[in-house]
Amino acid sequence: MSKDIRIYKYEIPARPGQHKIILDPVEKFLDVQFQGATLVLWAVVCLNNSSYEKEEYSFVVHFTGPGVECEGEIDNYMGTAQSPDGLVYHVFRRTWIEGIQRVENK
Fold first, then answer.
1. How far apart are CA 57 and CA 73, in angstroms?
2. Separation of alpha carbons 71 and 6, rounded Å
3. How many Å from the N-terminal Cα to the C-terminal Cα in the chain?
4. DSSP-assigned letters across all residues of the chain
5. Could you tell me which residues come within 8 angstroms of residue 78 by beta carbon, excluding any fewer than 6 positions away?
6. Whole-structure pTM value
7. d(C-alpha 34, C-alpha 36), whole Å
8. Are 81 and 38 within 8 A, CB to CB?
9. What would the pLDDT profile of 5-61 be if each residue is shown by its tens digit?
10. Does residue 64 contact residue 46 with C-beta atoms inside 8 Å?
11. Are 55 and 26 in contact (CB under 8 A)?
12. CA 32 to centroid of chain Cα atoms
């Protein structure tokens, strides 16, 4: 059976801190950039995945310099993007949510 692979774009809040976002089942995260004043990420999703369910992903956004509080460890650097007003955002994806370790096989 062939896969129905798509590339989708999702918005991430453009403010420092931890953000939980519901996404389609992600095969691979591709990039983080600004489109105008909106911070977005692109991901490869598989729509005919046999266990298709939207999932909650946790992202942490940092500015250059100041700290930000978040629960637990951060890892999985996603990218750095500069907003139209010159602020620089660094985006990380957390691999566990609500204290439960996610098993990464991607």
1. 14
2. 32
3. 20
4. ----EEEEEEEE-SSSEEEEEEES-EEEEEEEEEETTEEEEEEEEETT-TT---EEEEEEEEESSS----SS--EEEEEEEE-TTS-EEEEEEESEETTEEPPP--
5. 29, 32, 41, 59, 91, 92, 93
6. 0.77
7. 6
8. no
9. 899 999 999 998 889 999 988 889 999 999 999 999 999 998 876 667 888 888 989
10. no
11. yes
12. 8
Question: What CA–CA distance (Å, rounded) separates 56 from 80?
Answer: 22
- Residue 97, pLDDT > 50, answer no
Tokens of 37: 């004043």
CA-to-CA separations, 16 to 5, 45, 54, 61, 101, in angstroms, rounded = 31, 26, 24, 5, 23
Backbone phi and psi for residue 53, each to the nearest 5 degrees, phi listed first: -155, 140
